[in-house]
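Entry 14. Ran structure prediction on the chain below.
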Amino acid sequence: MDLKYPLGKFDFQQSVTPAMIPALIGQIEELPAQIRATVAGMSEAQLDTPYRPEGWTVRQTVHHLADSHMNSFLRLRFTLTEDEPAIKGYDEKAWGELADSRTAPVELSLQILEGVHARWVTILKGMSEAQFARCFRHSAMGLLPLDKVTALYAWHGRHHTAHITALTEREGWK
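Output, structure tokens:
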């Protein structure tokens, strides 16, 4: 198994059809409960274990999910209310090294994920096909339509869940 990309890299060339959207929204909706269940009962030492050599710890990964998904939720809102808004990327690695990412209880980010995902899914479920075709311009990735971004974040949640579950299995923790 590839420890960095256990599910493979996200394929930006894939087509996202309207028929795929409900399943993608379902994956986004399920992520907070899946992550909560994945880290349930972990000790502080386990939370501070990297999921791969030179990778983030479980704690940093959970906080990264909250950071990343908050950003995606706001990008969605900008895109639904502005014409092709310019979206600035951020240095995920640097954010992962901040004190809160390294030391704060994961419960803080689990709560963020639950709230953000509840609101995010409410918007996604109410969107039209035309709204999923709306785009934002990302500073590093260029023009991105919301249907593709929805697929990306469904993958992103599964990707990081797989990091943690693979570590748990390798270490025999559960």
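The chain has one domain: 20-171. Will compare against last week's run tomorrow.
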